[in-house]
């Protein structure tokens, strides 16, 4: 199952679902039918019957959350702390002088240089998004731009052009 945030359930959400399964187990122990449990907790009947079968086989422990799915990330929590401070230093510190923008490829290269672990641009983006970073696109303006001339043009010339 895919989730809109791209990361599955949070620890809090997993704990909440686990509590629901434990409450369902209490009802199963009292002899309540899985169909009634499904209605009470607003879950599918299929889920309720699956919980009942797992509860009968292994008790309440069989309904315990299995934790995160998939492989654990190779990006260690301590590395994330280091990585959070690096963009503030700028690309020049890491050897890019021609262009002062961070790209996913550059961030991936900085991580690879420091920790000897390679991440694809897609994985690098997932890591940065989990850390709270967002896409920032610089405004494309000429270095020679004269702001006073632009504001004067907007005030005087644009109203005449707009009338047509």
From TrEMBL:
SUPFAM superfamilies: Homeodomain-like. It holds the Pfam family HTH_23. InterPro entries: Homeodomain-like_sf, Winged_HTH_dom. It comes from the Bacteria. Residues 98-157 form the Winged helix-turn helix domain. This is Winged helix-turn helix domain-containing protein.
């Amino acid at each position: 199952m895919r989730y809109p945030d791209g990361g599955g359930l949070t620890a809090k959400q997993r704990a909440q679902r686990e509590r629901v399964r434990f409450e369902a187990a209490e009802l199963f122990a009292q002899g309540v039918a899985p169909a009634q449990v499904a209605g009470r907790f607003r879950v599918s009947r299929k889920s309720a019957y699956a919980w009942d079968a797992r509860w009968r086989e292994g008790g309440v422990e069989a309904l315990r959350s299995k934790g995160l799915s998939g492989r654990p990330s190779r990006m260690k929590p301590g590395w994330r702390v280091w990585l959070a401070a690096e963009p503030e230093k700028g690309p020049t510190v890491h050897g890019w002088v021609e262009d002062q923008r961070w790209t996913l490829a550059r961030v991936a290269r900085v991580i690879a240089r420091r920790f000897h672990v390679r991440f694809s641009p897609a994985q690098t983006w997932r890591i940065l998004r989990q850390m709270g970073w967002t896409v920032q696109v610089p405004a494309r303006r000429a270095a020679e731009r004269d702001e006073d001339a632009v504001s004067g043009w907007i005030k005087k010339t644009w109203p005449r052009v707009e009338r047509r």
